Amino acid sequence: MKDANAGLSQQTLMKQKLETAQIALAELKEDRNAKLRALSGFIGHLSLACKGQNLELDNKLAKLRASFSDVDRLDDILPELVDIERILKRQYSHVMTKLEQGRNGLVKFSRQLQRVESVPDKLRKEVNYFKQDVGKPFHTVWDYIPKVEQLISFYEQTLALCFDSEEPITYLPKYRQLAHELAQMISEIDFSKAQRDQVLVIKEQLATEIDIDALLESYQTILSMLLENIAKEKSASQEFLFALNEALMSVRDSINESLNQAQRNQQLKNQLNKDINSQVDNVESGLAVADNMEQMKHQVIEQLAVLRASLNRKEALEQREVAMLKKSVETLRNEINELTSETSSYKEKLFEQQKLNLLDSLTQLPNRAALDERMEQEYRHYQRNRNPLWVAVADIDHFKAINDSFGHSTGDKTLQVIAMALKNSLRDTEFVARYGGEEFVLLIPDVSHNDIGHLLNRVREKIKNIPFKFKNQRITVTLSIGAAKIIEGEHILETFERADAALYKAKHENRDRVIID
Ligand SMILES: Nc1nc2c(ncn2[C@@H]2O[C@H](COP(=O)(O)OP(=O)(O)OP(=O)(O)O)[C@@H](O)[C@H]2O)c(=O)[nH]1
Q1: Which domain of life does this protein belong to (predicted)?
Q2: Class of the domain covering 368-516
Q3: CA distance 238 to 100
Q4: Ligand 1 contact via 397 beta carbon (within 6 Å)
């Protein structure tokens, strides 16, 4: 009995413990559900705050919220959270980049506003403060919106002033763009030596804040220089054609003259031959009728004298003929000599012109047309022998800053020095051309993968070590270089594209470096 009682109380105790455990478990569950509800609410608000910024993020957050409602799916949530964290980080850097771009845009716009001449000083000063303020980095989108509003109000004020004033607007960003395009265009034209100084003055002008009248004048001057060059080229060809024509005419005259003279001489000779024959006949018939020796002798002497005179005339005629022939041969020879030298000097001129057409006038490096030709040639060579062929694109870093700080002509000189240094750092079999602006293209055959980095870094270092000094300031100019080796089945233009993409990477990785694709 005692044992039965002890068993009962044991059972009651166990039951009580089980009930307490059940209550604790229910409380725990309730607590967890409350936390999950709070988390789900938080995610709901997070979704609302982020809504529309990134579609992938919107979807992930919606899915996450749904997972919280089903406690059994909690194990699936962990990888989702990692994914969402990744998207959030990416979104953060995207927002920051956009903010930075927006800030740069605001600075640029305010700079352009300051260039409008009719803006009064007070407003200009305000824009200046604004520009300095905007110069500091933004941290949130909310910093950005009031700035845009402020800038719009500056624009409104400026526009109102422009519409009120009778004065024409002397400077607009679009003129600046046109001036920039014109400067770029004239950098690619080969002007004659005599014109280069004038071109330099125009380039300087175009780099400053030019008004519409000055811009139009620059267009006109450049146009008239180009027309002058075309006319010169035309008249050089015309001069040659005139000389050629004259020489041919005088050759024709001299041949005609010789022909006429030869005909006249032939007539004279025929007459003389007739005379001589009849004189010989006379001697014969005189001898036949002569009565005695004395008379015969007399007649022979007389006829012989006549004959000698005719023969002398014939000889003189023949001599004259030879002399004339000599003279006309001489004239012909002179004409031909003159013509030959004219032709070769014209050929030289043509050759020079052809060379000019393939050279960049500023740097004297091969230009883009020459690069196209050489690329084709190297590509054909590569197709025959399959030896390594590299294309490298080199671009001067922050070149605009040199132009902006020290003037366009300093920029031009810098380009010349760098072009020369690039040329000197390559072997004869290697090639460098000015591709345009501050960009150069190098074609390097027969260099292994191991050596190309070394070679290009040597070129880069060489440029970096040039002791440039502008306005007494020591300046280091650096290059970014991208390179690619032609691969099986690829056209050289595709290799160029890869080299260009590598250059783009080098620019984004802080510049002053070589990146090999
Ligand atoms: N002086 C001079 N400047 C030129 C010539 N051709 C192009 N430029 C200038 O080169 C500059 C190129 O500027 P960007 O394309 O902004 O490049 P960057 O300043 O070098 O900057 P990164 O390339 O990004 O390092 C522009 O200001 C052009 O006007 C030229 O023949 N002479």
Answers
A1: Bacteria
A2: alpha beta
A3: 61
A4: yes
